[in-house]
Amino acid sequence: MTTKNKVLVVAAHSDDEALGCGGTIAKHAHNGDEVFVAFMTDGVGSREPGCEESIERHKCSERALDVLGVKTTFRFDFPDNQMDSVPLLSISKKVESIVSEVRPTIVYTHFSGDLNVDHRVTNQAVLTACRPQIGCSVKEIYCFEVLSSTEWSTKAREVFLPQKVVDISNFWERKKRALIEYKKEMRASPHSRSFHSVEALAILRGECHGIDRAEAFYVERIIG
């Protein structure tokens, strides 16, 4: 019997998971892998916790994750767009608690060079929590790209160069349906975070490798 993977996606904000690896999440779920998603902030800025917008964003993410096949979600309340104001150790410990509980073999998170500060801090926290020590369950770590953050970053930082490409041709419709749940976070074209742009990127990543639609990842770790 084939052993299924436990997959953990750690995203700074709800909608990052759908933008960055929604098709890949759906593919993992379809293949029988157990997918967990952790959100580090509520994604609505410095508003009061539990405010109407925060509650609505929560509901949107629940519907989006249901479309993608995710059953278990972890949510933290670090300050949106201010995660750099919190000691990295505090954030890393939260991620580490999930890693200890879930014991994932595969982890997806943000790229270290993103413009958004929460993305960069989340990447640092994940790499810290998943240090390759004896007993660490994590064998693979991949970083996804999020339009309006990854490509907008300064070129003084490391530029996103995809090393792993996942064929999501059969799962594009699920990714699109998940993004429709986040329609308030999308922008009118022409804009990086438009539906048109997201599909254009999927087509580009796919056709560059002879497939219809794809998602691309920067490889942080693969232990064979």
Automatic annotation (TrEMBL):
Gene Ontology MF: a single term: hydrolase activity, acting on carbon-nitrogen (but not peptide) bonds, in linear amides
Coiled-coil residue spans: none
Pfam families: PIG-L (PF02585)
Transmembrane portions of the chain: none
Origin superkingdom: Bacteria
Protein name: PIG-L family deacetylase
Organism: Vibrio aquaticus
